[in-house]
């Protein structure tokens, strides 16, 4: 039998730790306080590094030797770039590219 008290304590701890992690940057670097140069540098370079890592992760398992030769991933990747250039909205680009990829692998490249 599941102990309800134990579950409530677990949920409260997870919620508290999540809130602490989310709020800690605002507590460490409040509005009006100068941020260290290293933190400002990381804020400029990390988004590009993360996108680069995501691109590598998405394309690392493509097999060009067998059907469908990576075409769904490549086409969806191009769709993400085109959506982002067209609308400039990251969420639309990611979700649109993901939906397009799922359509490609489930209906076009079976």
General description of the model:
With 110 residues, the protein is mainly α. 76% of the residues lie in helices and 0% in strands. The chain is built from four helices and no strands. Helix 3 packs antiparallel against helix 4. The longest helix has 25 residues, at 4-28. It starts with a helix and ends with a helix. The mean pLDDT is 92.
Features:
mainly alpha; 110 residues
Helix-strand sequence: HHHH
Strand percentage? under 5%
Radius of gyration: 21 Å
Average pLDDT taken over every residue: 92
> How much helicity do the residues have?
over 70%
Q: How is the quaternary structure best described?
A: single chain
Q: How widely separated are the two ends?
A: 45 Å
Total DSSP helices: 4
Anisotropy-based shape: flat
**Total individual domains:** 2
- As residue ranges, the low-confidence spans are none
DSSP, total strands: 0
Specify the biggest β-sheet: none
- Structural category: mainly alpha
């Amino acid at each position: 039998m599941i102990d309800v008290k134990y579950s409530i304590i677990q949920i409260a701890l997870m919620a508290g730790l999540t809130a602490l992690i989310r709020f800690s940057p605002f507590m460490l670097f409040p509005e009006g306080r100068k941020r260290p140069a290293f933190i400002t540098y990381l804020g400029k370079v990390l988004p590009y590094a993360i996108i680069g890592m995501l691109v590598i992760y998405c394309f690392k398992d493509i097999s060009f030797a067998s059907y469908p030769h990576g075409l769904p991933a490549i086409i969806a990747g191009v769709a993400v770039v085109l959506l982002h250039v067209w609308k400039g909205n990251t969420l639309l680009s990611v979700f649109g590219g993901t939906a397009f990829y799922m359509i490609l692998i489930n209906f076009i490249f079976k």
